[in-house]
Specification:
Rossmann fold; 2 domains; alpha/beta; 368 residues
Length: 368
Amino acid sequence: MRLVLTGGGTGGHIYPALAIGREAAEREPDTSILYIGTTKGLESRIVPNQGIPFESIDITGFRRSLSIENVKTVMRFVQGVRRSKQLLREFKPDAVVGTGGYVCGPVVYAASRLGIPTLIHEQNVVPGLTNKFLSRYADAVAVSFADSLPHFSGRRNVVHAGNPVASTVSKADRGRGFRSLGLADGTPFVLAVGGSRGAKALNEAILEMLPRLESLPNVHFVFVTGERYYEEALARLGELPTKLKGRVHALHYLNNMPEVLSAASLVVSRAGASSLAEITSLGVPSILIPSPNVTNNHQQPNAESLADAGAGVMILEKDLNGTVLFESVSAIMQDTARQEAMAAASKALGMPLAAGSIYEQIKGIANK
């Protein structure tokens, strides 16, 4: 198979695309992949490091108010379509897959105009503007959440496939997760992470609640601060009582997140689509604090989807503080039956075969 992947801006768009490419390469070892992104997005650094050929186009997103910049964006879109057609004619793909971000717009649109089969993948419950636009032209649509299906009613070949990153983490080694933290297998611990860069509001609530861990004597706490907050967090953690310090493990980043997540008793997290796909693939109970600083507040519907299923608890950032967070952590960690019920509900939402399902969709449209 010759496959073009496109998606950019954030890891939430890039890693699903890479997971789809990885699945295609595993199924068909002679697969050729080209990734089209922008030089300004994270994809320009992440994708080449994976050894995947990378080409760029110049495109920006629309602003939500009248602006001269939107006129320039239209011009960039037209130029981006022209550049995309050139790249597609040279590469001659069997299919083009878009996973979100404004770079997908000209690439997938150009492919549709050239008669190349196209699939778009939507990670969030509420679709982004680009995928809403592209769904009119795509030959297939894959969604991560069942709650997304009504947003694509009337479109062709819409499948609730899950998020392909779930397939990557489903084979994580739980024992290695414990060992990497220096913990004995089965040690109960809470994993708190605000994303790769950290989250100030979440970190502050965690630092406020940690002294209360004295009332949870057997529970450890793994606190992933993000690099820019790490030194400040270490200084604050130095003020903890000595008997607590051994149960709090502060890290600025986790290189083996799937392994540690698979070992966790509970995760405290933002509600990005890829994070939730990993959490549910592994069946981990969660406390979710959706970021209010994302487009269309799309993390809140993501978190609500898990909370409504009994797989997680949602706390809005405006309601978040150390007391509220500790009460939620304590209520779950001291109730084994509730933990087990949440884990089962989380696992029921998980779709570890997502990448394979999307691959079959791609093969279907390519064969047609």
